[in-house]
Design brief:
Strand content: 25-35%
Shape: globular
Order of helices and strands: HEEHEEEEEEEHEEEEEH
CATH architecture: Alpha-Beta Complex
Number of strands: 14
CATH topology: tt1808, chain A
Number of domains: 1
Number of helices: 4
Structural class: alpha+beta
Radius of gyration: 17 Å
Distance between the termini: 41 Å
Strand order of the largest sheet: 3-6-9-10-11-12
Helix content: 10-25%
Length: about 210
């Protein structure tokens, strides 16, 4: 895929107060993103705007919260840190200048083991683990775009959590920089991590009280 071309602006710092003021045909950078003041949550992929799903359901929040707490407890005395959405992850190639960053995502949960990637605005560079809890509003196109971003920029593990199927699928980055899928884990099973040795997560605990 060709590199995005920044869109022409008269003033890159000019605030945008309404989502409908944006032109979906243009290419935007993180510098522009920082000046969007509207309430809608959006992500950038290759400079293109992706409007995020409406407020997540209570079940989505329960699942995310349980995974976040399990990871947080495990990492309490560990150099890796865990973060929960909303938390900006900027994926960059080369320059870390805001005007040269064209992909900004907000994973539901991410684990970052390199403290140099953490700053006041979120994460700059690929997290080690990304967790996405699927919602009915997620489209196949959206999921494919995120899969490609996480693979391209070197996320070591990508956990896809399905509240509908009560399952978890883990993609692990291989030596060639390609994701390899695990089996689909379901109730009564546990997942482990190649990034966080000795970590276990029981699916029965994750999906307890989720109908």
């Amino acid at each position: 895929m060709s590199e995005p071309v920044p869109y022409p602006v008269l003033n890159d710092d000019e605030p945008v107060k309404q989502f409908n003021e944006l032109d979906a045909s243009l290419t935007y950078s993180y510098s522009s993103y920082l000046n969007w003041l509207f309430p809608e949550r959006v992500e950038l992929i290759k400079g293109k705007i992706f409007k995020m799903s409406p407020a997540p359901s209570s079940f989505h929040q329960l699942i995310s919260g349980k995974i976040y707490r399990r990871l947080g407890n495990f990492l309490e005395k560990h150099p890796c840190k865990v973060f929960i959405s909303p938390f900006d992850v900027r994926f960059l190639k080369g320059s870390n200048d805001d005007k040269e960053i064209f992909t900004v995502l907000q994973p539901d949960i991410c684990v970052i083991c390199d403290s140099n990637k953490i700053d006041a605005r979120g994460c700059i560079g690929a997290p080690d683990i990304v967790v996405e809890v699927l919602s009915p509003g997620n489209t196949k196109t959206e999921l494919l775009h995120k899969y490609r971003v996480y693979e391209e920029f070197g996320v070591k593990e990508y956990w896809v959590v399905s509240q509908g199927d009560k399952s978890i699928l883990i993609y692990t980055l291989d030596e060639m920089g390609k994701f390899q899928p695990s089996k689909i884990f379901t109730l009564s099973e546990k997942i482990t991590s190649t990034v966080l040795l000795d970590f276990e997560l029981a699916l029965d605990d994750v999906f307890e009280d989720v109908d």
